Amino acid sequence: MKRAQVQLPDWLFTAAKNLAGTKDISLAELMRRGLEYMLAVTPGAQTEAKAWDLPPAQDLQSTDPFAAEGWRAQIRLLIP
């Protein structure tokens, strides 16, 4: 997935944020759906629609930090 920065007029941002809220989705999801729609209805813009999937989950920590003995004492050492 790629990240993009978009500049919107204040009125458009507010309207889009409100619409996303009424649909219970994020602003990013609203923008993705809008772009997918525009590509679908614009002749020649895209030859094949591709479904978007979440990237696979990654194991960020292989062990449970709270399973270790003395984890509370270790945390206290980190906090000044």
Structural class: mainly alpha
Quick one: biggest sheet? none
Estimate percent helicity.
40-55%
Order of helices and strands: HHH
DSSP strand (E) fraction? under 5%
Number of strands: 0
| Structural Rg | 21 Å
Give the oligomeric state. single chain
Coarse shape: elongated
- C-alpha end-to-end distance: 39 Å
Instruction: Compute the number of helices.
Output: 3
- Average pLDDT value? 82
Show unreliable segments.
none
Report on the structure:
By secondary structure, the protein is an all-alpha fold. The chain has a domain at 1-52. It is built from three helices and no strands. It has helices at residues 10-22, 27-41, 71-78. The longest helix is centred in the middle third of the chain and has 15 residues, at 27-41. It is elongated, with a radius of gyration of 21 Å. The two termini are 39 Å apart.
Quick synopsis:
With 80 residues, the protein is mainly alpha-helical. The protein has 3 helices and no strands.
Protein traits:
3 helices, single chain, mainly alpha, elongated
List the helices and strands and how they pair.
Blueprint: H1 10-22, H2 27-41, H3 71-78
Helix pairs in contact: 1-2
